[in-house]
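Structure ticket #2291
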Amino acid sequence: MNNRPRIILDCDPGVDDAFAVVAAARWADLVGITTVAGNVSLACTTNNALRLRDLLGLKVPVHTGAEGPLKGTPVFADHVHGVDGLGGIDLPEPTSGPDSENAIEYLVESTRSEEGLHLVPIGPLTNIALALKADPSLAHRVASITLMG
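Resolution: structure written out below.
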């Protein structure tokens, strides 16, 4: 019997979320990764998620999400995480791009096709807010939302 939770990791891969991707790949059934601007720009967080997917040999989709907060302008933490979000670590460029540029649709459709998924947003909550706005019943289909905020 498999007791590993099936999760979608919604993240803004800087150094901290890189460790979270590693942990999720080891301790959960990682169903997908959605990216959001946060520690660095959306282009960087998505690129980092793709680089990590390749490095870890993961067979999970990566979907690009929100470029900034619902209101106001993004504030990045490149002074902490480096310009690329991963402290300048030398990882190869990804071998493929994101599976889609619509994380919100992916979140809604994934939770419709498989009830009981766990959402684990560990970056800005913009993708989750937009998914709940698009489909409020999403909250009743997931097993949990475990967040770092």
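Closing remark: The beta strands are 6-11, 29-35, 62-64, 118-121, 144-145.
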